[in-house]
Amino acid sequence: MYLVVSIYNFCYFLFQTYIMTEHLRISGMYWGLTALDITHNLHKIDKEEVLSFIKQCQHECGGIGASILHDPHLLHTLSAIQILCYYKALDTINVEKVVEYIKNRQKDDGSFEGDKWGEIDTRFSFCAIASLALLNRLNEVNIEKAVSFIKSCMNFDGGFGSKPGSESHAGLIYCCLGTLSITGHLHIVKADELGWWLAERQLPSGGLNGRPEKLPDVCYSWWVLASLKILGRLNWINTNKMINFILYCQDAETGGFSDRPGDMVDPFHTLFGLSALSLLGYTKADLKTINPTYCMPQYIMDEMNLKPDRLDLVEKTDHLKGWAGIEED
């Protein structure tokens, strides 16, 4: 009898856990599948099961929800598109309707609402622009206005917030830089001021926080480091201390990563811990190269011929031109 009760309680726990995370299902799949891909293990997941689930999450309006029968949102639409790119299976969804859904989310000032309920946030600008770029349909929205809105969110410290006048935050900075990287407008960024602000996020533990006076968190290992990589200033932080902090957050038994040492692990922090290690060139783990703009394996970007801007590449090119005596027209 005790065994039966124990099994029942465990099954009920699993059911509760599944229900409580349903609003994150598509994003959770992206976190898990990306982590598996950069560790050379994507083949361990049933591809057809993944594709079938995503297909069921698309609505008649074209947007994709977090789970079956959940409202569509740009966040989950991007996650679904990223997953489909891994499997070269964009034809799983109705691409024309997805494009129309994203177009309808852009407002007159260039910003994007996340869904039909109207919340405006620079996260959604990135989701819209990244989704369209992955679909090779970036020309479907007003890029000039989209960039203008991002620029209006720039603060005195070089950072960006969720909307004009909002506090600078590392996660939102990543989204704004990602949008500018994809659209080819990184030149509007105050690179040194922003690089300094981002480098200041490193704490004595080696970890990074998202804004001043906050605790370190492994997820900011990605938001901050990817931003610094895009800016060409990744060397502005202490790499060894950063790597050690991330490794301290790995659970020896499960292999997953948590936000801070000793906390519960989850797919979200596992992906961003591994992605940060890839960015840092950590050689003791066989990790695929990650693209700092899309947080997708670089080989996918190469296959799709996507080349988002990065200041380190621009500055390197300018340096080589100067060294070779080449002048701009």
Short description:
The chain is an all-alpha fold.
What does this molecule look like?
The chain is an all-alpha fold. It has 3 domains: 1-104, no CATH class; 105-156 and 171-183, no CATH class; 190-313, Glycosyltransferase, CATH 1.50.10. The protein has helices at residues 2-20, 25-38, 47-57, 74-86, 95-105, 122-134, 143-152, 170-183, 191-199, 218-231, 239-248, 267-279, 298-303, 311-324, and strands at 290-291, 296-297. Strands 1-2 form a two-stranded antiparallel sheet. A hairpin with a 4-residue loop joins strand 1 and strand 2. Helix 2 (25-38) packs parallel to helix 12 and helix 6 runs parallel beside helix 8. The longest helix is centred in the N-terminal third of the chain and has 19 residues, at 2-20. The protein starts with a helix and ends in a 5-residue tail after the last helix.
Secondary structure layout:
Elements: H1 2-20, H2 25-38, H3 47-57, H4 74-86, H5 95-105, H6 122-134, H7 143-152, H8 170-183, H9 191-199, H10 218-231, H11 239-248, H12 267-279, E1 290-291, E2 296-297, H13 298-303, H14 311-324
Antiparallel strand pairs: 1-2
Q: Whole-number radius of gyration?
A: 20 Å
Amino- and carboxy-terminal Cα gap: 83 Å
Strand order of the main beta sheet, please?
A: 1-2
Largest sheet: 2 strands, antiparallel
Uncertain runs with pLDDT below 50, 5 residues or more? 1-8, 317-329
Q: Averaged pLDDT, please?
A: 92
Helix content: 40-55%
Task: Supply the CATH architecture of the largest domain.
Answer: Alpha/alpha barrel
Secondary-structure-derived class = mainly alpha
Order of helices and strands: HHHHHHHHHHHHEEHH
Q: Briefly note the CATH topology name of the largest domain.
A: Glycosyltransferase
How many domains make up the coordinates?
Answer: 3
Q: Count of DSSP E strands? A: 2
